Write the C-alpha cells for this entry.
Amino acid sequence: MADTAFDWLNPFASVDLGIATWADGIKQWAISNRELIQPIKRFFETVIVGIEHALQSIPPLVMLAILVLIAWQAAGRRGAIVVGICLGILGLLAPEAWGLAMTTLAIVTASVILCVAIGLPLGVLAGKNDRFEAIIRPVLDTMQTIPAFVYLVPVVMMIGIGNVSGVIVTIIFALPPLVRLTSLGIRGVNPSVVEAARAFGASPGQILRKVELPLATPTILAGLNQTIMLSLSMVVIASMISVKGLGNEVLRAMGRLDAGKAIVGGLGIVMLAIVLDRITQGLGRSGRDRGHLMWWQTGPVGLITALFKKQT
Amino acid sequence: MTDQEDVIRCEGIWKIFGDKSRQAMEAVRRDGLSKKDIREKFDCVVGVQDASFSVGRGEIFCIMGLSGSGKSTLIRHINRLIEPTSGAVFIEGQNVNAMNPEALRRLRAEKIGMVFQSMALMPHRTVRDNVAFSLEVRGVAEAERARVAARAIDMVDLTGWDRKYPDELSGGMQQRVGLARALAADPTILLMDEPFSALDPLIRRQLQGTFMELSAELHKTTVFITHDLDEAIRIGDRIAIMKDGVLVQIGTPEEIVTRPADDYVADFVAGISKLDLVTAARIMQPLAAYVQAHGPQDTSAWPVGKPGCKLNELVDLAVGTDHPILIAADGAAVGVVTKRALLRGIQGRDEERAA
C-alpha cells in the first residue's frame, strides 16, 4: 500500500485502502442480482401507478373540493381557505400543471406511506431502546446528509430507472425526521403517567397503544409533516431517474435554460407543499387546542353530524 | 391495630441503585459496608436499607420521612414497580417478586390501587376513561366499565365531571380523580404516594377528610406515604419513620410521640401537640406507688378518668379541683395522674416517677 517515499507529515497521500474500488463492488453486486429485485419492483410499480391513476381520474375541480374539505376537517376554516387558494393558483399556472401535480402527489403519497410503515416502528424502537437509538442515529445522519447523487447510481443499477427508484431515493432522504421525532415523542411522554399505567396493570403493548403513542402524536405528526416536505423537495432529483411530474418539468426547463417553465414547475411544487403542510400541521393540533372536541365534532363532518342529530 | 393476618409483608428489602448494585449487595452481606463505603467503592446509592414491616387487613400504615429518605422507593416495591436488590414482598402470602408478568399485571389491576403525588392522570383521556383504566386493561366490557367508573366518581364527589379532561379540573379535583382511579377496581390494597402533598393546605385537609371517610367505609389496607407528621398522626393506625433508607421506628402515633427511638425521631415529634395523642395510661403513676409515697388517701372527692383518656380530657377534669385525678379501669382504681405529671405530659417530658 505505502510504496514509495512514505511521508510522515502527509501520510494520507501515500496510503490507498481501495475503498472506492471496494464500494464499486456494491454496484457490481447490484447488477448481478437484478433479477431478485424485479418482482418486488413490479409490485410497487403497480401500487404507484394505481395511486396515480386514481388521482388523475378524479376531475380537477372535484379533487380540489375534496382537498379543501380535508383541510377544513384537519386544520379548520382558515386552513381550508389557504389550501383552496393554493390549489387554484396551482391549476392556473399552466394548462398541464394540474396533471403534473397529481403525478408528483402520487409519488409523494407512495413515499410517505412507505416512510410511515418503516419509520414509525423504527422510531418507537429508538424511543424505547437507548442502544438502538445510538446505532440508528449515525445511519439517519448519513441518510440526511449524503448527497443524493451518491446513492442514485446504485439504486438505478439495481432497480432501473422509473417510479420505484424515485420512491426509494425519496425514502432515503425523507425518512430520518419521522424516526427522530417519533423517538423524541416517545421519550417526551411524562414518565409518571407511564408509571401509573404500569401500576394499574397495563402490559407494555397497552402502554404503547393507550398511553405513549397518543401522547406522542403531536410530535410524531410534526415528523410526518417534515417527511412530506422533504419528499417534495426530492422530486427534482428523482426526475433525473425518469420520474414524471412537476420535478421533471423543472429539470427539463433547466436543461433548456427556460426560466418561465422552471418557475411554473417550481411554483407548482411550492403550492403542493403548502397544501400538504397545512393539512398535516392541522392534524398535529392536540385535543386541547380544539377545545376537547373529538375530530368528528368539528369541521364539515361535525356540521353533517350536527344536522343529522337535529333531524332525529 | 388489627391482630388479623398480614396483607402486606415486606422482608428485608434492600434497594441499591447503580450498575454494580449486585456486587455492592454482596459486599454488604459479607462485610456490612456502610452507605458511604458503598458509594465510594461501588459508585452505588442505597435507596432502601433492610426494610421489614407488615400491614394488617384494614390497617392504615403511614411511612413518614423527608424527601430523599427512600419512602417513595419503598412503596414501589409493594407492587413491584421497582425490583428489590434483595428481600421479598408478600401480598396475602404470595411472593410478588416470584410472579410472572401476567400474574403481576393481574395483581396490579385487581388487587392494588395507587395514588401518586404528581396525580399522573392521562391528559388525553376523560375523567371517566382515566378512572376505568385498570378495568380497560383487563378487558372489562364497556357497559361494566361505565357502571364501575360512575360509582367510583360518585364516591369522590365528582359526579357530573366524568366527560371532562384532567386539564379542565383544579388540582384538588384531579387528585380526587386519582383516588377514584385507585378505588375503581375495588382493590384490597391502596398505595398512596404523598397523595396530598402537592395541594394547598385547605384542599389538603378536605381531601384528607374525604379519604378518611372512604377509608372508614371501605376498610382498605393502606400504605400511606407522607412527609408531614401531622398528616401521618391524623391518618395512620401505625407510623413508620424513615431516614436515609432505614426504617428508624415503627409504632402507633402515641408510641412514636411519647417514646421516640432516637434523637432524629425526637426532633421530629418535638413540635407535635400531645393533647389529643397521649393517654392517661402513659403518664399515670400506679396507685400502689402513689400510696407508698403519699400515704393512704381519701379518693372519694377526686375526679375519675379512664386509662384511655387523652390529655385534653384530663385537663378538663383537672381544672375543676385541686385533687389529683384517679384513673380507674372497669371500676377499679389503677393509677393516679398528679397535676405535675399532667403538665409534664403536655410538655412531652416523662415525669420521673419519684418514689
